[in-house]
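Let us work through a complete example step by step.
Step 1: write down the sequence.
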Amino acid sequence: MSNSSTPTAAPDTLDLLVDDIEEDLFANRESNMPCFGSATSFSYHPENTAS
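Step 2: predict the structure and record it as tokens.
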């Protein structure tokens, strides 16, 4: 069962990262940050904000 520790940990880690990113995005929206201030979609690609 030791082999299953790595694959099962990946989705949980991603969920935690997404939660942190969402919290940062909502907090930064009020701070008017240039990167995430006007980004309502979680694309996470700064170069795509120019379109």
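Step 3: interpret the result. The mean pLDDT is 64.
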